Amino acid sequence: MDKQQLHDCHNRIKPFIHNTPVLTSRLIDKISGAHLFFKCENFQRMGAFKMRGAANAIMQLTDKEKQNGVVTHSSGNFAQALSLSAQSLGVKAYIVMPSSAPNVKKEAVKGYGGMLIECEPNLKAREFASQQIVQKHGATFIHPSNDDQVILGQGTACKELLEAHPELDHVVTPVGGGGLIAGTALSALYYGKNCTTIGGEPMEVDDAFRSLKSGKIESNTTTNTIADGLKTQLGDRNFPIIQEHVEEIIRVEEEEIVSAMQIIWGRLKIVCEPSSAVALAAVLKAKEKFAGKKVGIIISGGNVDLGNLPF
Amino acid sequence: MDKQQLHDCHNRIKPFIHNTPVLTSRLIDKISGAHLFFKCENFQRMGAFKMRGAANAIMQLTDKEKQNGVVTHSSGNFAQALSLSAQSLGVKAYIVMPSSAPNVKKEAVKGYGGMLIECEPNLKAREFASQQIVQKHGATFIHPSNDDQVILGQGTACKELLEAHPELDHVVTPVGGGGLIAGTALSALYYGKNCTTIGGEPMEVDDAFRSLKSGKIESNTTTNTIADGLKTQLGDRNFPIIQEHVEEIIRVEEEEIVSAMQIIWGRLKIVCEPSSAVALAAVLKAKEKFAGKKVGIIISGGNVDLGNLPF
């Protein structure tokens, strides 16, 4: 994917997304020893960067495809993002979600106009249900992270960040399914001045770290992390980009994630998801690497259960 | 206090404060039936609007007075605001605080370079300790809310809000000691187009509501509210301004405050104090009054104990 594609993607989705604010904090700079620029995608529409990739993926469909709608399986932010993007674009969105998913997530999808299809809580059932909708309605399946158009869309957050702060030395993102970090790496490459992309990943689900080591896509046998957006594994579309353009993945412990989350909430005064805090946790873990550097941090989202906080 | 004074005050303090962002939310607009513009003073330096008044009050001192320092008694945001303003301006700040105040508040004052003086937890002891510092060091006492320069400073938040959104019909603020709402009323008068100022006040500490009824400053016999910044009473400097220029004070129940706080955290994705939520609670309580109107809401601060949330 080249610079022109990223440029076109950004122009295409601009009417449907916010150019989210960048926050700084003297106190967090003091704590980290670096100059940090927080790109606040928690303020994005529906509360997460996923809105960008979802909007772009739908907009790249043909008129015929748009008429038949889109389908995905997700119980996270992408379900809401695809629903809201589809609604904004006058397209039908079918969302396959395990029946065990929290009610609040089901309601959010419905609130954004998504058609909810419940299935048994396992991967096979989700894929089967999605496939049925593709066959029955001719809907286009859109993967939450392993899709070129989604990757491009997610990259526009870093593009905006670099347009506002062109001198960043590094950009750090959390790593889940790989769409955000792959898109970010492309933006850093095309719009940064020697700006490198670094990932933060929970030690408990360090599949991306291990994938970079082994050279093939690894998975997680357990997923005991508070960062519930980061349990997924990389895909064949984003992995090669990550291999080529991501400098390093820094792994962090659960208590480091909670501590970073407390710093963001307490000092930056914003509500972010545990997954978002993984990027700051990585910067605080590798202080010597980032000392004195200008570092962009993507705050990926703010959809969190306020009744179930880790502090 | 005239428009020129407010204008000069703003120019004076600009280097020491942030012009804080204004956030909007389609979802909260839907819930309220109005168009809401949240002026986010939780993003202000040290986390609250109090920074504005504190900076202005110190800057209006003579050089001789500045040399002798400033003193206040407060266990809230004004203690931190005076400490940080004084530090930024190279002035000594003495902060009298009851020994019973939470350690985190004492540490915050020290972190901003304030000289902490602990006293017995009653008003007499606080006033005595402050008076001693005035006598011993020649320091100038600065009241957290009942001081013309503080009132002008607090008014600059609404001035910035109206400069960004000149067409507001109403501005709503929480009412505590009266500095914020008095300053806001002056800004609405000088910079608004028929923009009226409205207060939100907890039913549990409705001294300002009763003061407007009776025509004299009333106090609270009990202070059982989660909005801990609003327990104080009006003063002789701000009360006349409030009498003349505040349209109405709307009282809200404790559960309405918590509910508004949840909406702000969950939908706006920002961390605010319970006191801040009182303004939105007032708008939601008087929906018919605000229906279809453009309403500014001052989010007064974001200093909250994350380990002790009401949800």
Automatic annotation (TrEMBL), chains A, B:
Keywords: Pyridoxal phosphate
SUPFAM superfamilies referenced in this protein's UniProt entry, alphabetically: Tryptophan synthase beta subunit-like PLP-dependent enzymes
Every Tryptophan synthase beta chain-like PALP domain range: 14-301
Pfam families in UniProt: PALP (PF00291)
Keyword Lipid metabolism: no
Necessary cofactors: pyridoxal 5'-phosphate
Top-level division of the source organism's lineage: Bacteria
Gene3D superfamilies, A to Z: 3.40.50.1100
UniProt xrefs under InterPro entries: TrpB-like_PALP, TrpB-like_PALP_sf
Keyword rRNA processing: no
Name of the protein in its database record: Pyridoxal-phosphate dependent enzyme
Organism: Flagellimonas okinawensis
